[in-house]
Amino acid sequence: KMAETAAKRPKGTDKDDEGLAACIHRAESLAQTLKPDLLNAFGKDFVVPLEVFVLHCYSTDHATLFADLNLSPLNLLKILEDGSDLAKIAPEDGHQADRAWNEPPEYLPLLQEVDGTVRYGYYRDRPDQYPVAVLANQMDSTTTITFKNASNSLLGFLIHRARKCSQASVEKALRYFAESKQVSLGHGSWKHRNKHIQATTFSGLGIQVPYDKKRDVGYRPLGATDRELKGMLSKIEKARQQGKEPAYDELDQLIQFSNIANDEHDFGNALQLGWSISRLVVI
Q: Exposed e or buried b for every residue in 167-195, given b needs 16+ CB within 10 A?
């Protein structure tokens, strides 16, 4: 059960509510105005939650919003803040802005800690999917698992952050926005999504691909356990560090199996292997 499916609107003055309602109206207008350019810059199936535009409009009225929360904007929030012309972004290049080395196309970074140690963004398994959750990408993690659930929504994450930073007026405004648009503030959507993944990955994301259970098409296991794969990659990395020629035989066999899986429409196999290899930085 979700901890909080939607915010309860805090009490405020009519004047306060009018200002916040006007902010929502501006955000809705902006979302419609920018829709064609967004679809060009991020892809024809790209879905942007209204909360992104609400936060942008609110931040134009409160210039220190993100700084007060010890955060700085990335990607779309940064593009909007800078006033960049979305129409000048090459088709589908929007996803490349501010992307970290370990962030897959399914992840869209939107905020980061001011010291850059943790980044926060939307995750979706398909381009046309509404974001499943906001995940924290821990860039300073000492393990391969860097992605962790932060909230069902950006507003949910920021409301928690505002409370943590003792920004009562910001928390109040964000709760108004969330209640007005019935935005989920819980953490359950990521847990629900993980019940339907085909396999785990070293990063903590796991993979979810189209899978026909009746025909058993879309995914097949790698042919090696996580422990066995980590052992293969560790041996390769150790040999490289020692200046020796690594033995790629075992890994080459897995890659060959993945190519066969692709030929037979089990594309999830190669996706899992590719992400497992990239997380351990074996190049």
A: beebbbbbbbbbbbbebbbbbbbbeebbe
